[in-house]
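Materials and Methods. Structural model of Carnitine O-palmitoyltransferase 1, muscle isoform. The 765-residue sequence of Carnitine O-palmitoyltransferase 1, muscle isoform from Denticeps clupeoides was retrieved and submitted for structure prediction as follows.
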Amino acid sequence: MAEAHQAVGFQFTVRPDGIDLHLSREVLKHIYLSGVTSWRKRAIRFKNDILAGVYPASPSSWLFVVVAIMSSVYARIDPSMGMIDSIKATLPVSEFMTVQTQTWLSAVLFATALWLTLILLLRYTLKMLLSYHGWIFESHGKMSVSTRIWLVGRLPSRAIRGRGLVLSVCVCVCYLESVRPLLDDEQYTQMETVANEFKKDPAPKLQKFLKFKSWWAANYVSDWWEEYIYLRGRSPIMVNSNFYTMDLLYVTPTHRQAARAGNVVHAMLQYRRKLERGEHAPIKALGKVPMCSFQYERMFNTTRIPGIEKDLVQHLKDRKHLVVYHRGRFFKVWLYLGGRHLWPSELEMQFQRILNDTSAPQPGEMKLAALTAGNRIPWARARVKYFSEGVNKTSLEAIETASFFLTLDDEAHGYDAEKLRSLDLYAKSLLHGKCYDRWFDKSFTLVVYKNGKVGVNIEHSWADAPIMGHMWEYVLATDCFHLGYTEEGHSKGDINKGLMAPTKLQWDLPEACQEIIEGSYRLAKEIADDVDFHGCLFDDFGKGLIKRCRTSPDAFIQLALQLAHFRDKEEFCLTYEASMTRMFREGRTETVRSCTCESAAFARAMEDPNMSCEERLDLFRKAAEKHQNLYRLAMTGSGIDRHLFCLYIVSKRLQIDSPFLKQVLSEPWRLSTSQTPQQQLNLIDLQKFPKYVGAGGGFGPVADDGYGVSYIIVGEDLITFHISSKFSSPETDSYRFGQNIRQAMLDIRALFQLKEKKNVGPGDI
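The predicted structure was written out as C-alpha cells:
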C-alpha cells in the first residue's frame, strides 16, 4: 500500500554482492520540510523572546543609543561623566587591545548599560500608569482632567503589573455589607462580632504573609487559586468544573460531519500558529488597558494529569497529532505533512476514513474515557497500575500529548425552534455527553455531531471562559467566511490520497481495570442524569434597548436575576458573578457579590403593590449603580473573595484556626452567574450577517439546591440564558427559573415604558 511505503524513509535488500538501498524521495522530502518548519518556528520564538525581553524598547533602539554614545566619544564629549574611563580601566583584556579599541568597547558597554537602565525606567513608568483606575469609575461620556492626562501618557502596552494587595480591614467591612441582606439582626450581630475578632487577631499576621507574597510573586492569588480550587479537588470534574461553548445558533455551514470537522480543526491549527508566533493582538479592557495573555499559553497541547493528592497540568510544545473518538474507538491522526498543516479537504478525508471504519471496540475501550469523568483518586491509581507500560502506556501518551481531543459524535444536536428542548439536550450533550465520549482531562474536547453542528467541552483549571471564547470566535469566523465549503458541502481544496490512514490505538485492559472504568461511569452517569438544564432565548429586547435606558446591560440582567430568584424561592441568597482581573499579570477572576441591600430593596419593591413606578425605578437605578461599582472594584483588584481565600490558605498553612474564615469559605453560592464575552475579535459583522450569532455556553450547578446561570448578550436584540440545577433538589426547577427570568426582564422594561408615557425626566426609552 502507498501508506506503508511512505511510512519509512528507506528500504533495503540484502544481496550476495552487498546491500541494495531504496530511498523514498517523497518521505525524505517531507522530513526535510518538517525540519525547515521546525527551525523556522524556533527562529520566530527566538525573535519573540528578544522582543518581549527588551519591551517596551526594541533591538533597534539599542543601536540608536550605541551610535549616539559613540558619536559623543568621537566628538570628545563624555556623556558618561567618567564611567567610560572607569570601564576601560577595569577591562580584563585591556592589555591585548589598543587604546582606541578599549575606548570603543567601553563606550558600547556603557551604552548597553544605559539602554537597559532606560528600559527598566520605562517599565516602572508604565507600571505606574497602568496602576491608575480612575477612568473605569467615571460616568459614561465624562472624563476628568487626570484621566485625560493619563490617556496622553499611556503607551501601547502589555499587562505588566502584579495584583495589588487589599487591606484585611476593608475586606471585613465589605464582607459584612455583602451578607447584610441575607441575615436577620441577630445573625448579623453574631457575624459582626466574629469579623471584629478576626480583624484584631489573626488578620494582621495573615496579612503580613500575603504582603510578602505580593512582593515576591507575579500574582499573589492565581497559583493558589489554580491549585486549591481546581487541582486539589478530588471529586469529578465533569459537570462540577468543566464548562462548554456552543456553535452558531441559527447557521450550520455544512451538514457533512467530516467536512465540518476538517474546516474547524484546520481553523484551530491556524489559530495555534498565530498564537505561537505572537500574532494575536492583545485584548483591551474597555478598549483602553491591555489584558494579560498568560492563560492563552496552555490552550493547546495541554492535559490535566490525575494524582492522589492533587492533579498536574501538563503542557507540551509542538504537538503534531490529535486523537479522535468515534463509536468506542480511539484513533491517532497526524495534522502535518511535509512541514505544513493538512488542508481542510485532507482532514475531511482522514475523518471520513474514521467514520467509515466498522471495527468493533476492544474490551474496555468503549467507556475508557469515563475514568476522566469519575473521582480523581481511582483514576490516578488506575493510571499508575494499568497504564505505565506496554500498549496502554503508548496509547494513553498519544491522548495526553495530543494537540487536543476530537469526538465525532454519533448523535445530532443543535438549536431547532421546531423541536422541544433542543437547546437543553444540546447543552447537556456538550456538558457531559454519554460520560465516556469526551476526554474531560484534555484542555478542550472538540465535539462534531453527525448533522454538522459543533461545540467544545473545556477543562477549567488552565484558563477561564473568555480565553476559549477568543479562540472559538476566530474558528467560527474562519470556518464560515474564509475556508468555506463546496456546493456539495465538502471542504475545499485538493485531496492527497496517499496520506497515511489514521492509526487505531491499541489497549490491553484487564478485568480489574474494566471494573474501575465501570465504577467511574456509574458515578458520572448519576451526576449527568441529575443535571436539570434549560436554555432560554430572550428576544423581546436586548442590549440596544437597555443602553437607551442608560443602564449597564450586565447590571440590568443581574437585577433581573435577583428579582427572578426572589420570586422563585421567596428569599435572597449569596450570589456569585465572575469578573475578570486580567488587567493584572496572570490575573484570572474575582467575585462580584451581586446580592446587595440595594438589589434586595428593589426586588421587594417590585413585589409590593403599594410601591409606585417612580419609587421602583429609583430603587432600580440605585441598585444598578451599586452593582456597577462592585464590578469595577472587582476588575481593579479591590474585590474581597480572592483575598479572603488567600487569607484562609495562609491560616491553614500556619495552622491558625479562624472561625471567621471558616464561615466565609463554607457559605454556598446558591446563585452562580457568569456573562460569556462576545465579539472579542469583531470578525463577523452582525449588522450584515445577523444570523451568524453564537449561542454562548454554560456550566453545571455549583450548589446542590442552587442555580448556575450563564448568559450571553448577542448583538442588539438577543440574550441567551443557560440555566442549570439538579433534579434531586425539590427547591429548584431550571425551566421555572427561566420563565421567572423572562418575566423579570419584561417587568423591569415596563418600569421605563411607564415612565416614558408619563414623560418624566431624562433616561427614557
